[in-house]
Specification:
Order of helices and strands: HHHHHHHEEHHHEEHHHHHHHHHHH
Shape: globular
Mean pLDDT: 80
Number of strands: 4
Largest sheet: 2 strands, antiparallel
Structural class: mainly alpha
Oligomer: single chain
Number of helices: 21
Distance between the termini: 67 Å
Radius of gyration: 22 Å
């Protein structure tokens, strides 16, 4: 039964994430990079220095720029950084990491553009809260040129966004990875774990069952508190755990520097199928490209259209202010955190072990590179990082999905309240989904969500360039506070 379901899901996944979508995403990133003159490179220093900017009086929005970024990062820095990277390399080989890097570098321009447009087209509701995202970008932006197309893209995005939260990134994949990490640690600490039979599904350890219950309860307590509580939790957990994971990963890499050059060589050779068997180079490259780009987008969500929903709540006067900050999320997520995971895995060789999957690959990699550290200690730190990363992703995607439903229901909050409980229920049943099915479902709905968002970016590319030029040329009509050279100017 499960084998047949997995076979159907794999077929759908291969169709959705075929060459057309991969090319569309890459071409969009290249196109935006060119017309914006490499804004992700030329303005990266300015973007990072702007993260902690203080909101000025009179700026519309709900959250500070930092909290809006952390809310977006809470949904991006999650299992994709630890488990997703391992899955991509396990299937596509070391070359998948190269394609993750490329997708991220180009994706920074995409993330900048989609978040900029979300601010530009956002709306303030009667009760003062802000609603924005690709659904309004499509409806108001694309709709101004092509009314029917704009509304269709908006509705499709909101529907797919809800599905990604409920069936993809938000619940099943996160909870499945959390329970897997906890169970792996428990097995490292004790080889004798009792099991419970879950009717109609199978046998699971007590650790998995208890974890799913606790996780659902804690998630419910935060989710019911709304955006402010989610952003507060995210602004504390995300930065701290990102630093802890970065330090652990760098320690593992520095202790094994002799393996680094070989790992980098494997990554570039694998990216283009140079080590594949005769006649299989193209096939190997396509697999590495497919898995790398898919997992890269799963991790940093550039082009997916999710981060703009959080970005739209930021207190800023000009759309570029948050767009430039939001693009740093892709940099931190993939270029920094995912690279740590990927290099450790390739250096250790754990990705080639057929008996390992997901979190087990990452766990084995760290244990291999840090033999002097007790295995139980490594498993514990990785478990804590993964659990907290994944937990904040659960919270972030509930927020995204709720905003999609609010758009679809035209402000009627009853469907949103019903959805919250469905979401919490999905968190509870997540551990009982098979690993392959979980990631395949996530890939499918991710791809579907990206399509209307990317179409809107291409249609509104002129607006993106105009807003960018207005900001960086120091046009005082926008009261921006910075000129092109990143020097303060007086606002009028």
């Amino acid at each position: 039964m499960f084998a047949k379901i997995n076979s159907i899901l794999d077929a759908i996944d291969s169709f959705v994430w075929g060459l057309p979508l991969i090319i569309l995403i890459l071409v969009t990133g290249i196109f935006l990079t060119v017309i914006l003159r490499g804004v992700q490179f030329s303005q990266l220093k300015f973007a990072i220095s702007s993260i902690f900017r203080k909101s000025e009086k009179g700026e519309e929005g709900e959250l500070s720029s930092f909290k809006a970024l952390c809310t977006a990062l809470s949904a991006t820095i999650g299992t994709g950084n630890i488990v997703g990277v391992a899955t991509a390399i396990g299937i596509g080989g070391p070359g998948a990491l190269f394609w993750m890097w490329l997708a991220a570098l180009l994706g920074m321009a995409t993330k900048y553009s989609e978040c900029l447009l979300a601010i530009h087209f956002r709306e303030e509701k009667a009760d003062g809260h802000i609603l924005g995202g690709p659904f309004y970008t499509c409806e108001k932006g694309v709709g101004a040129k092509y009314p029917t197309l704009g509304k269709l893209l908006a509705v499709l995005f909101a529907i797919f966004g809800t599905m990604v939260g409920l069936f993809g990134i938000g619940t099943f994949s996160q909870v499945n990875s959390i329970t897997s990490a906890v169970e792996t640690f428990a097995k490292t600490a004790s080889s004798n774990l009792s099991s419970i039979s879950v009717a109609g599904i199978g046998d699971y350890t007590v650790v998995v069952v208890v974890t799913s219950i606790v996780l659902a309860i804690v998630a419910a307590l935060v989710i019911i508190g709304g955006l402010k509580r989610i952003s507060t939790v995210a602004s504390v957990i995300v930065p701290v755990m990102a630093v802890v994971y970065f330090v652990l990963g760098m320690f593992a890499i520095l202790c094994n520097l002799s393996l680094l050059s070989s790992a980098i060589e494997q990554i570039f050779q694998g990216a283009f199928g140079f080590k594949a068997a005769a006649g299989g180079a193209v096939g190997a490259m396509i697999v590495a490209m497919q898995k790398g780009i898919a997992r890269g987008i799963f991790s940093n969500e550039a082009g997916l259209g999710s981060a703009p929903i959080a970005a739209s709540t930021a207190k800023v006067e000009h759309a570029v202010q948050q767009g430039i900050i939001s693009m740093t999320g892709t940099f931190f997520d993939t270029i920094v955190v995912c690279s740590i995971t990927g290099l450790v895995i390739v250096m250790s060789g754990s990705w080639s072990n057929p008996d390992l999957a997901g979190f087990q690959i990452t766990n084995a990699a760290f244990q291999s590179l840090l033999p002097v550290v007790p295995k139980v200690a490594i498993s514990f730190v990785l478990m804590v990082c993964l659990v907290l990363f994944a937990f904040t992703t659960i919270l972030g995607w509930d927020f995204y999905s709720e905003r999609c439903i609010e758009y679809l229901s035209k402000g009627n909050m009853m469907p949103v309240k019903v959805y919250r409980w469905l979401y919490i229920a999905a968190v509870f049943i997540g551990p009982y989904m098979t690993v392959s099915a979980v990631w395949t479902i996530a890939d499918i709905v991710n791809g579907l969500m990206a399509i209307p968002n990317i179409i809107s970016l291409l249609i509104l590319s002129g607006t993106i360039v105009k807003l960018t030029n207005d900001f960086f040329s120091g046009n005082k009509l926008y009261r921006i506070g910075y000129d092109f050279a990143n020097n303060p100017v007086s606002a009028e």
